[in-house]
Amino acid sequence: MIDEPRSPLPLVTFDNQTEWNDLLPLCNRYLDEAGLRRLNSCLGVVRTVVIERHYIDKDYRDTFSNYHSKRFSTPPSRCLRLHFFDEPITRDQLRSAEQIQSSYCGYSIIRPTRPNCIGRTLLDPRKLQYPTGDLCTCEETLSIQGVILDVHGFPFISQDADVTVCAQSALWMVLRFFSNRYRPYREIYPVEITQLTRDYSIGRMFPSAGLTNWQMAEVLRQLGFSPLQYSREGYQDQFEHILATYVESGVPVLAATRKHVVACLGRSHDLQKQLPPGFNQPYLKSSFFNTAYTINDDNGIPYQLLRVDNQAAVAPMLPLSRLQLKEIEAFTCPLPQRVFLSAEQLEVVVLELLRNTDFRIEICSPTLAQGTFVIRTFLTTGRSFKRYLDDRGMGHQTVYKVYRNMPLPHFIWVCELSSIDLFRQQRIVGEVIWDATRNVYEPSGWLALHYPERLYVDYGSALNRARSLRDFNLDKSTDYPLMTHNLRAT
Amino acid sequence: MTDDTTLELIPDQDQVSHKTFEDQSEYDAFWQRLLDSIEPTLEKLAEARRQSEEAAKRHHVR
């Protein structure tokens, strides 16, 4: 049923008479068949589409003003905004946020650009019919004729092939995530992204012919990030684990194949994944359990899965990407400015501490020494870590109290410790907390080392005074939940 | 009056903790051994970083 097709806000409800193709004539000049197929492939769950005509989109208006308006053949300056609902809704219900919020799946801007008409898009991954993994997400508030709705997701945009190609699109997605989620980052528009490379470019900037990874890192640096570059050739067998560690930290990365780049924003894991035959290593990194990474590829649909390998246990009907993880040759990580210690440096020093020093597991933790231990590394804020202490309990009241009282830096690295069996249940028995503002060559970077039997706290690091290590005996420790708040489960 | 040098993270349970190294120089020596042992690995990581940054200048995507 199509309600008020000639109005500024037609409602299209799919039923026996109305289907997705009926959107095409209603969205004339904007939505093309390719765009319709892309939307339909990820939004099969949708029952009603609200078409908001004459929508002025801030990102398209930016490219229109700076590029499209200068052409002889000029597209319209306005867009359509499509709102998706997974329940049939009526025009009366559309006047009440309370009645429609629960069925709201998100929106997509439809630009009058060819060959790609899909503009700024934010879809709630929990509303889609396919598993998308655990993701970095942000929130937006929007208005449909004055009715205020919220949507959670990761921003998506397709390239317009003139001002933006895959490099600018992937950068835009990552930057919009940060500006939506964290107050210190301002909103960036597509033309500005390319203009930020003008001191690092040869020749013209528009129409865009793409960017190098170095240029993308420069954009990030100028916007207040502290970007790090990783190439598969340089880091070899550590490359995929380092990527996994940043994603686990809730930091989306720009993952580049030989000629293309995507935003990598989440991961799926199989906690029952079998260990390789004859496995006999002292420790296992948690990324072993990852089966796929979630990407936003501007050439595809939101939340596609990048397979770790062809044999990975994934359910049928997933929106699998045409890419595979092994095709990722490099990635750029937009680290926050105050994170001075990188993931790979942190793991080197922590694994040495746990395996070869006076504080090694073999000596200090009979519980963990019983078999292979699992290490899960991630970055978080001191604030976020403390926020969930109550929920998690931390295995022992002394640990809980110390962590609660301990001054923490803005960013901390956490290496959670578990056994394989407990990790499969998403539970841990300890962790190492490290000051992320430290230099790896500097002594006393640790704040705490928590084994089931003992808690070591560097009072010097925590209280900004001379080095002094304190040791707490822990009786009757229990296991407790790992910290899952960097990524949102879908 | 309590100043920073006597601050305790669990004041009421101070008896459950003790100094791990009575002698500060022992703690310093522990750290020196740890940092010395990881230095070769950190050198390799530094080389990997240099290699990645060089590659980033040539790696063009569109």
Describe, in plain words, how this protein is organized in 3D.
With 490 residues, chain A is of the alpha+beta class. Chain A folds into three domains: 2-153, no CATH class; 225-336, Alpha-Beta Complex (Cathepsin B, Chain A); 343-481, no CATH class. In chain A, strands 7, 11, 12, 13, 15, 16, 17 and 18 form an eight-stranded mixed sheet that branches. Chain A has a seven-stranded mixed sheet with strand order 14-19-20-22-23-24-25. The longest helix of chain A is centred in the middle third of the chain and has 16 residues, at 166-181. The model of chain A has no long low-confidence stretch (mean pLDDT 94). Chain B is mainly alpha-helical and 62 residues long. The relative contact order of chain B is 0.06. The N and C termini of chain B lie far apart (64 Å). At the A-B interface, strand 10, helix 7, strand 11, helix 8 and helix 10 of A face strand 1, helix 1 and strand 2 of B. Strand 10 (211-212) of chain A pairs antiparallel with strand 2 (60-61) of chain B, so a sheet runs across the interface.
The tally of domains of chain A stands at 3
Strand content of chain B: 5-15%
Shape label of chain A: globular
User: Biggest interface and which pair forms it?
Assistant: A-B, 60 and 41 residues
The run of helices and strands of chain B is: EHE
Tally of contiguous helical segments of chain B: 1
DSSP helical segment count of chain A: 17
Q: Mean pLDDT score of chain B, rounded? A: 85
Strand percentage of chain A, roughly? 25-35%
Mean pLDDT of chain A: 94
Category by helix and strand content of chain A: alpha+beta
Principal-axes shape call of chain B: elongated
Low-confidence runs of at least 5 consecutive residues of chain B: none
Largest sheet of chain B: none
> Termini separation of chain B (Å)?
64 Å
Number of distinct beta strands of chain B: 2
